[in-house]
Amino acid sequence: MKLWGGRFQKGTAKNVDDFNSSIRFDQRMYKQDIKGSIAHATMLGRQNIIPKEDAEKIVAGLNGILADIDAGKIEFEIDAEDIHMNIEKILIERIGDSGKKLHTGRSRNDQVALDIRMYLMDEIKEIEGMLKRTLDTIVNLAALHTETIMPGYTHLQKAQPITLAHHLMAYFEMFKRDYDRLSDCKKRTNVMPLGSGALAGTTYPLDREFVASELGFDSVTLNSLDGVSDRDFVIELASCLSIIMMHLSRFCEELILWSSHEFSFVEMDDAYSTGSSIMPQKKNPDVAELIRGKTGRVYGHLMGLLTTMKGLPLAYNKDMQEDKEPIFDAIDTVKLCLPVFCDMISTMTVKKQAMLQGAKGGFTNATDVADYLVKKGLPFREAHEIVGKMVFYALENNKTLDEFTIEEFKSCSPVFETDIYSAISMATCVNDRKVIGGPAKETVEKAIASAKEYIKRL
Ligand code: ARG
């Protein structure tokens, strides 16, 4: 019989058991469920809501079940619906009547809200660890490339020279925001809902604050309806995870481009590439592509969760059982992608010469020629027009700006002197951009130093 079977004249249909049951996917919360029940039972004993001996038996029984699940000795039952009732049922089988007192003053509605919050807290901490490693990997790679000049792009057209370190540190900023966002999301997850009951709290003198501190929560939920019906924190996490994937995906897209023959800026290590079953010459950036591809499923889960919640009247509705598979899969996906991404970028070969060559083409120093004229007293708009004409001339004559003879320079504007050559070299273009946030070697070195400090504080 079901734990809730008293009111029923017959059992549920077989296909309804399968349909209703969430044990397939919510069993991964068994540790949190048991820890939560131990705290609840301990509190019930302390408050004399149930006899202390019963509370002790319950705690011992639950610890035994935990050890047995850890050891793979327990088979869950579809009929027992979910992880909460599976564990309660096993407890009652093992310790008898005392076990029947565990659910006093509690509903599965506040129990599942507790479990999912605890589970997500644990996962967030793990993902934070992986993000920390990602930040570390990026900074270490950047430190090797503060002089590796490459073209910077807008519209995927060559724009101005930068360094690979500067480019990498842009991703550092993104993943740093991801880390901060996760920490922020943790604040709203870190609230203890037990005591909300089914929806209207309970008449028992529960000590909610005791349970919260036993379980390491910062505070308790302040409205029983909200306590059982809030899944904002699940959606927030899905959104944080989506943004992480978006960042990974942008980086991977660049790596895919850069490893194409046309760019040849990087080459993935053999261990992070795959071949083709028909074309013998192929070396494909599958890992980067798959990370880019997996971004779609995480976004999908965010949309799914928002849609599941959008029309739900207060308080708990069974629809909310549908929160688990998407958020679990989003978590699994991010946890799969981050480490392989770190390994892939720390083993790739950077082709510095090709990057430098790339930076030299496409008139990436045109702005610097204009800035040179401005420093000699011309208004910027006038300088812009002169350099525009110079680019047109250069294209016609198939040369770069630094290949102009001094006579050619002077025929474009009399203010040009021979110092123009050093003023528009790739290294000057990069290293004169010392403004905070700019690509100059010394500026990026400072950014790397403060990034390392940031990582140390995590
Ligand atoms: N398995 C359910 C879930 O994941 C637990 C709560 C069920 N509560 C209920 N009243 N049916 O949401």
What order do the strands of the largest sheet run in, or round the barrel if closed? Answer: 1-2
Strand content: under 5%
Return residue spans where pLDDT drops below 50 for at least 5 consecutive residues. Answer: none
Radius of gyration: 31 Å
Q: What multimeric state do the chains show?
A: single chain
Based on CA inertia axes, which overall geometry fits?
Answer: elongated
Helices and strands, in order, run as HHHHHHEEHEHEHHEHHEHHHHHHH
Major beta sheet summary: 2 strands, antiparallel
Number of domains: 3
Count of helices?
A: 19
Q: Would you identify the CATH H-level superfamily of the largest domain?
A: Fumarase/aspartase (Central domain)
* Terminus-to-terminus distance: 50 Å
**CATH structural class of the largest domain:** Mainly Alpha
pLDDT averaged residue by residue = 96
Listed once per kind, the bound small molecules are: arginine
Q: Write the CATH fold name of the largest domain.
A: Fumarase C, Chain A, domain 2
Helix content: 55-70%
The count of DSSP E runs of length 2 or more, i.e. the number of strands, is 6
Structural class: mainly alpha
**CATH architectural type of the largest domain:** Up-down Bundle
Describe the structure concisely.
With 458 residues, this protein is mainly alpha-helical.
